[in-house]
Records
---
Amino acid sequence: MQVADKMDTFPDHENKSRKVNHIQALDGLRGLAAFMVVYGHMSASDFSMNTGVLFAVGNYGVLLFFVLSGFLMGYIYIGKEFTLKSVRAYLVARVARIVPLYYITILSSFFAFEMCSHDFVYKIDIYQLVRSFLFFGSASVFWSIGPEFQFYVLFIGVWFFLSQKKHTRLSCAVCLVPLLIGIFLIRQKLPGVFVFSKLHIFLFGVFLGMNADFFSNILNKKIFLYFQSMSILFIFLIFFPVSVFRNIIYSNLKDDILLSFYYQDFAKIFMAGFIVFSFCKKTILSKYILSNRIITNFGKFSFSVYLLHFPILWFISYFGIIHYINNVLSILFSIAVIYFFSFCSFYLIEAPLQRLVKEKLL
């Protein structure tokens, strides 16, 4: 997923050659979002590690992922010519990015659960296997993959709509606006694995992405530097909420199965969007905080980190490795093992399969 740090004009269907550069800070932000999920999950009771943060930190990592996905789709594709060739390239890129490693992980988890141990952290039985293959799975971290992949398919319609001439868009909007309002009103009653329950998050990201060039041109670097400073403060408070903000940032609700406190709260969605948007322009702060080589490389294999961290933590706990070392060493050891295997997964499995899929389908 590539984005830009310098843009020219408000995107329109006639802007066929809009240049898309690479924003390294968003790679770094993706890596940070994955780490939020990992570090939050390390505090789960199953792993007996005192990380000093709440399990729910991971919800903010997923929220950032959702907004980032919308932002990237909006920035990269809205303004690009909508043709059969461009749609095909888009779909192949999305499939290559998600499907190979996702399917491998799902299948491996199914065999691990059914043939090795029913205590395995990914409880994938035949029912969950079928649901997961159809991108409607709800087991563990896989619940978030479905809405994201469904959004990739739905985005083709968004792209097509915004590529039309203005009068055509206005005519279509007469039908689409009531439909979107209806979806918005019932979103909290929809299953969490269904894209329409999270559509407002993705579309907010699309809006930010397609207008990033416009706002980047009218706001100077000093303002973005201020935005980025605020974003870093927000992230710090997510990890280490002071008591006065704790009940605002984290939920005490025990029956919030759909996690509405996080994914339906507009203040939190706006905060996630603000964080993503603030780093779409290069500044001295973004260069050293999120664009450094270490964290951008973590962003490269963030999908492997997201899919593999739970089983790795489970194996570490299952074999009792962390019981022989103190808490701090347990945390450092677990993080090192997770990122080592995720690094190997990316370069030995994920990246080669991405290239293979693109070669075969393009």
---
Amino acid sequence: MDPAHETDELARRIARWLAPYVAEELRRARLDEAAPVASYDDAACERYLMGLGTGVLERADRFFGALARDGEIGSLELARLLGLSSPRYLAANLTNSLKQRADALALPRPWREGVDADDRTRWSDRDGIAARMVAAIAVERQWRSDLPRTQRITAADVAAGRIRVPARGKPLFPARAAQIEVELLGRRIAGRWNPRVDQDKSGVVSIGRAPLRALADGGELQLDDRLLIEQRDGVFVLFGAAQR
């Protein structure tokens, strides 16, 4: 093969590999320029959604979709929409996370909230925010689909206190074994990275049995989950519990 052609082909492969990471840096830079957040415009909705786990994001899509479509929804309807057996599970599965994200951005709730004649909570759209959230969720989903994922979490992984990183995700981590800071499903943990470069195997993030066992016992981490991987300011973020 012509050396010039080989060089061009290598450049194209590198460009394809780098594309999602470059896109994410540009996306974050654009959203950072919009700070501080004062209202739920399009950029603020994107920033708001970036901090949600994948499960909450999916439930938020149904919630804001209902508000955009119907203008309001009650707790009984929302529980049915999300497949929950009772409205009392709404806080743990959706609204607590949405409120915490608003608080982190120093924003009001992205809805209006009241009670009906039966003293049950009802949510209503505010200033067209719900439709902007639905559009921003579609953008967030596309972005997350481009991120590398961990290997599937197994019982052996939990018992060993490790998370395995396949070849596509390894370039995000140091080239050599190192101590790293990990954010696992919102929790900061000191970890150890082993790229296993001398073996044709996945790299390993070791964080200890206790943190993984606590997440698994609490239901936040499920067997067969594949976590999304991202590096943010030197911290290795594993989030989303994305399942196929």
